[in-house]
Amino acid sequence: MDNKKLIASCSFGKDSLAAIIVSEENGHHIDEAVYCRIMFDAETSAELPEHEEFIHCKAIPLLESRYGIKTTTVQAEKTYSDYFYTQYENGGKVGRIYGFPFLRGPWCNTRLKVRPINAWQKGVGEYTAVVGIAADEQKRAEKKTVNGKFLPLVDYGVTESQAFEKCKREGLLSPAYNGGRTRLGCWFCHNQRVAELRRLRREHPELWQKLLALDTESPVTFKPCKTIADLDFRFETEEAQISLFDI
């Protein structure tokens, strides 16, 4: 470990928080945490509401009071919805809006996360990035094991399940994991499993309605050959069948 300051990239999921906890437990003080906040629209975060509350009302204050770690929040100037309605200016799609991101080469990650983080990095100077990848995520770990990165969960042999339990013991486990959820991310992500979309519709109908509203405008289907309306019909049909069996 060099003498550069340690900065943890933190989504406030179990792995990124466990990486901070393990670092502190083993004498590697984190100088700063950086969180990239993504917005769906001007009022609505990309985080599930329960995770959004956890981040700002519990996790950020606790990192500072317990470990002396301040969190820097970076954010793109535009929202997901802003880019959704952005029109192409070149090529054969001039005048057409982006709509939902493509499965491959999606515009959302670059514009909403990579660019604001890169802009922040230009002013922060040299540092070692603390990355929350668990010891049993071998393929991900191999890609990130390079100079300038510190993988505390890998170095100290902490698996995903152990990271979960460690966060739980330390009072730093997001309530968004309740009910068996194992991964967190943008609630509107087109890469998430159908089961998570079904749960989103059931638990947060107000967010589901926001996706339905965009669905009618998008020149690109939400999933390959599947619109939000298609999924909505599927989920409604499933609920009707369950209700029939209950009778």
Characterization of the model:
The chain is built from ten helices and five strands; from the N terminus they run βαβαβααβαβααααα. It is α/β, with parallel strands linked by helices and 247 residues long.
How would you summarize this macromolecular structure in one to three sentences?
The chain is α/β, with parallel strands linked by helices and 247 residues long. Helix content is 45%, strand content 9%. The longest helix has 19 residues, at 49-67.
Q: How is this fold's topology laid out?
A:
Layout (H helix, E strand, L loop, with lengths): L4 E5 L4 H12 L6 E6 L11 H19 L3 E5 L4 H5 L22 H15 L5 E4 L7 H7 L4 E2 L1 H4 L4 H10 L24 H10 L1 H11 L12 H19 L1
Parallel strand pairs: 1-2, 1-4, 2-3, 4-5
Helix pairs in contact: 1-7, 8-9
- What integer value in Å does the Rg equal? 20 Å
Taking pLDDT < 50 over at least 5 consecutive residues as the criterion, the unreliable ranges are: none
| Gap between N and C termini | 64 Å
Major sheet attributes? 5 strands, parallel
How are helices and strands ordered from N to C?
EHEHEHHEHEHHHHH
Strand segment tally: 5
Number of helical regions: 10
**Major sheet strand order:** 3-2-1-4-5
Helical amount among residues, as a percent range? 40-55%
Structure classification: alpha/beta
Overall average pLDDT = 93
Strand content: 5-15%
| Outline | globular
